[in-house]
Write a structure and sequence with these properties.
alpha+beta, 49% helix, 8% strand, Glutathione S-transferase Yfyf (Class Pi), Chain A, domain 2, Glutaredoxin, 4-stranded mixed β-sheet
Length: 214
């Protein structure tokens, strides 16, 4: 069985829990206290991932770090439908593009959340400004897609691109990044939440985080 080295409050760990729930893939959680325990920097964990970062998966001895890379691996190795990472070259190119955007969201919206929630010493204005710039681009992309009858980031159906981008967009208000001016983005969040086997994490369903105008 796959082992997921996991912290319940990490959006990057959550996107893996979410994806494995969506495809019905069983796994074992191995708790790692990110804050305040900082167990991801302990010697024992550094032997698993020398970068000292979460998440990490161990699939019968195959160890892989980085949330986006793990999504690609899980979708390729464990999704027999190949729905979530289609083999079409153009779709895969678009998925890869959005996985890169997910990293940018992590460096901005997630960093703002770490600043506000855990007092990480980030430049909060720069984080929020960058996140708003990203969200404006995503808003335009989704709004154009809705006009064309497409509700997802990379294809006509949901892919790992949507899973990768979802957590830190939905949790953005925890970093002071409100979603009131992004109606298409909020509708996309609701579509993700409506997927069969969707699961949440702390903050996703909280009244102040749910993507309503504010």
């Amino acid at each position: 069985m796959i082992k997921l080295y996991n912290d319940e409050l990490s959006g990057n760990c959550y996107k893996l829990r979410l994806f494995m729930s969506l495809i019905g893939l069983p796994y074992e959680r191995v708790p790692v206290n990110f804050y305040p325990g900082r167990e991801h920097k302990d010697e024992a964990f550094l032997r698993i991932n020398s970068f000292g970062q979460l998440p990490v998966v161990d699939d019968e001895g195959y160890v892989l770090r980085d949330a986006q890379a793990i999504l690609v691996y899980l979708a390729t190795r464990h999704d027999p439908t190949q729905r979530w990472f289609p083999s079409d070259a153009q779709v895969r190119g678009r998925v890869a593009l959005w996985l890169s955007v997910a990293e940018d969201i992590t460096r901005s919206a997630s960093a703002a959340r770490l600043h506000d929630t855990f007092a990480y010493p980030f430049d909060i204005k720069a984080c929020r400004d960058t996140a708003h710039t990203l969200f404006a681009h995503i808003e335009d992309h989704l709004a154009d897609g809705e006009i064309e009858g497409r509700g997802w980031l990379a294809d006509n159906t949901p892919t790992i691109a949507d899973v990768a981008c979802f957590p830190y967009v939905a949790l953005a208000p925890e970093g002071g990044i409100m979603l009131a001016h992004y109606p298409a983005l909020r509708r996309w969040i609701q579509r993700v939440k409506a997927l069969p086997n969707f699961i949440g994490m702390p903050g996703i369903f909280a009244a102040g985080i749910d993507p309503q105008p504010c």
